[in-house]
Specification:
about 220 residues, mainly alpha, Arc Repressor Mutant, subunit A, 2 domains, about 70% helix, globular, disordered N terminus, transcription cis-regulatory region binding, transcription regulation
Length: about 220
Amino acid sequence: MPGNLSNSVVPTPDELSAAQTGRRERKRQQQLDHLADTAWALFEAEGYEAVTMERIAEAADVAKGTLYKHFPVKEALLRHRFHRELRESQAGLVPVIQAEAPGAARLRRFFALSAEWSERHRRYLLPYVQYRLAEPRHPNDDRQRSGLERIFTALIADGQEAGCFRRDVSPTVLAVYLEFLYLAALLRWLTEAASSLPGEFESMLDVFFGGLEVRV
C-alpha cells in the first residue's frame, strides 16, 4: 500500500518553480558565456577593432537580435569575460594573498597580481574601462559588478581587524575610494601617462595608505 504522500519526496509547486527558474538561469548563463567566449576568440584572431557585432552573431550561430538583447556593444562582451575571469580566479588568489601579513602587504600583493593580468590584457582594457565608467550605475545589478569592491572590502576589513588600518571609516566606503584610485592609476597607464603599471599602483597605494599630508 502506498505510503503517506505528505511524507514522500514529492516536490511542491514552489520547489518545481524554483527548479525551473534555476534551469532557465543556468541556460541563460551558458548562452552568455558562449557569446562572450565566441567574441573573445574573434578578438584574439582578428583584432578587437576589426570584429563587428554581426560577425560575432554569425560565429556564435545566433540571431543578431539575440546578441544585442544580452550585449548591446562589444565592450559589454569584454565586461562579461573579464568579470567571469576574476570570479573564477578568486579561489586561486586567496592562498597567495593570505600568505602575506594582513593590511598593506596583502593589498600590495593583490595589485602586483592585478598588474600582471592587466599587462596581458592591455589592448582590451581601455575600451573596457571607458565603457564601465560611462555605464549607468545600478547598484543592485550584479552584472555590472566586477567583484573588485568585494575583494577590497575584505582585505581592508582584515587590515582593520589586525590593527593595521584605522577603523573610523567603514571598509565598504574605503573600498569604493580604492576602486576609483585603481581606475585612475590604470587609466594613466593605458593612456601612456605612466610607463610602468606596477610602479603606478605602488604610488597610488602609497597615497592611499599615507594620505597627502606630510608627517613629521
